[in-house]
Design a protein that fits this description.
The chain is built from 13 helices and 26 strands. The protein is of the alpha/beta class. A nine-stranded mixed sheet has the order 2-1-10-9-11-12-13-14-15, with helices on both faces. Helix 1 runs antiparallel to helix 2, helix 2 crosses helix 3 and helix 6 packs across helix 7. One of its GO terms (molecular function) is medium-chain fatty acid-CoA ligase activity.
Length: about 475
Amino acid sequence: MINHAPAQQAPWLRWAVERPTAIALKVAQHTYTWQAVAEKVAAIAAALQLQGIADDDVVTLVGKNHPDAVWLFLARLHVGALSALLPPQPIAMLQRKLETIYRPEQTMWLFCADPSEAAALQTQLPDCRMVGRIVDCQPATGVVKPANYHPEQLSSLIFTSGSTGDAKAVAHTSRQHFASAQGLLSQFHFTVSDTWLLSLPVYHVSGLSIIYRWLQAGACLRIGRIEDGEMTDVTHASLVPTQLQRLLDQSIPHVLTHVLLGGSYIPPELARRAAALGIETWLGYGMTEAASTVTAKRVDGRESCGSVLPLRQVKIDHDRIYISGDTLAGGYYRQGTLTPLCDDSGWFDSKDMGYWHEQELHITGRVDNLFISGGENIHCEEIEAVLVRHPQVDIAVVVPVADATYGARPVAVIGCEPGWQSMSADLREWLEGRLETFKWPDGYYQLPEHFYTKGHTQGIKISRAAVKTWLSAEIKGCRDPDKQL
């Protein structure tokens, strides 16, 4: 829908006025000032408009992190159109998501930074219109036209991870994303003199939120990867514990001061090592619907997710966590229509379970990950939390499997280095004294490599539904779980 309200100053244009010569963006060996960012974004926006993209269109960006995707996201904000952000995926899955985004009569705008992938998509999806290589256009120096920027207008569509198998398109405005950034940065300090590494994919809210924190702070954004040695000027990063562990073990040159950790259990010793080097390590609790982080704290060895950040509210009713506040999405998007997230009182049911202790939030698990075994309640996450503390376990996913005697029993799928032949015995020994015996998994399987490398190394949670489907096939094959390790 076209927004007829007066446009507001886009955040990159604000910084181009206030800090025109400050370095805003770093891509490999190239640097851009805020003035250069504003000029390039305006030039790309003009090229988008020449191709026919208007402020009532949706532009779908498909692909992994690439500088072109960041430029296009900003240019799309400049035009006033809506961005849908999707990872590379099989064509059938992509088609289903496009059917969620676009009405039958609507132009399906598609952008892919990789030329060969773009050509393949054009062949496989002939009804789509591909956005051309407008990111190479040269801006007219000093010429920056006003942006058609409306912070209250829908800005992004991000599909939920689908951990339950039911992915939905979550719709946020820029104002909601900026509320998320403001609340976090009030405690997790990120200033104009700092640089944040954009290493997480922007098709996940954890990656997109970095862009909004950058725009909120007027700081510098580095697009790159730790593996490429892009750390020598990076002060802030969003990492998983194994990435930070590797960075410290390999003595990779860096100037890190703040790391936001996610993805799995954080060993206290890792936080202490980082602190000794002047690095603050933080953790939090969040979700796509809440534009990333809801609670946060500095890692202190206590098993909580921290306190509620500004501009959010959290309540617990019958052990169930409900969220409200300025960061909540406008709704689930389908072909231009929003289905509200919240109840009539403005509360969103996270379907997470937890409790308060000393004003900090503790998560006990998901409502849909609770099952009954022999009359006893078992939380998958409780078992996973114990398993992942074993020094050789990187990931643990517990799945309930039908059992003739008990109704259901837990089975664990473990992400670890290959070749750990005694894992089953070692983990049973590890659970002794740490977990009631009726909660011990009946079997252990090794997590396939495609789950392990594609998800966990980027800090993105693994699809529990996909793991369950894979495990079901393994069990039907009558394979002995103890031989999987």
